[in-house]
Amino acid sequence: MQVIRGQLLSFNSAPSGEHPSDMLHIEKGALVVDDLGKIVWLGDFSDLPQTHRGLPETDHGDKLILPGFIDAHLHFPQYRMIAAYGKDLLDWLNRYTFIEEQRFSEVAVAGPAAKLFLDELARNGITSCLAFSTIHPIALDALFEEAQSRNMAMASGKTLMDCHAPSGLCDKPETAYQQSTDLIKKWHEKGRLKYAVSPRFAVTSSEAQLEATGALVKENPDLLLQTHLSENHGEIEFVASRFPKAKDYTDVYDHYGLLTENSLFAHGIHLSERELSRLSEAGSAIVHCPTSNNFLGSGLFKLRETASYANGIKVGLGCDIGGGTSFSTLQTMRDTYTVSQLVGSRITAFEAFHMATLGNANLLGIGHEIGSLEVGKMADLVVLDPQATPNMAARHALSKDLHDVLFALLIMGDDRAVAETYIAGKAFKANL
Ligand code: GUN
Ligand code: ZN
Question: Hey, where are the domains in the chain?
Answer without folding.
Answer: 2-68+370-431, 69-327
